[in-house]
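Thread title: Can someone regenerate the structure for this chain?

I was given the following input by a collaborator and told the matching structure tokens would be attached. They weren't. Posting the sequence so someone can regenerate them.
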Amino acid sequence: MEVSPQVLEQDIVIVYLKGRLDAASSSNVKAALKNLIENGQLKIIVDLQEVPFIDSSGLAALVSGLRMAREKGGNIVLSRVQTQAQTVFRLTMLDRVFSIHPSPEDAQQSLL
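Best answer:
Regenerated them for you:
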């Protein structure tokens, strides 16, 4: 799993993920989100265009990040969620918890 954060604006960061978000990679994603939040980056877009598969461990990492961000007054939104992940979010009803957007630009607008 590749995790590539990039600052879009002073207070908005996009995190590009590439690879499977599963038990093997979820701790890296959780640590990356925690690090961003602890460093004051509270508006985060997680781009899932290059993530073909998410399992329960991956969902837990995203939920953990969302909880940390919201505790500090921030938010995590998702963009370009692939078909398998869309199904997982829908089945777990996490599509009602996360704001999911078709593009990073739409996600960015939702954070302004």
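The first strand starts at residue 2 and ends at 9.
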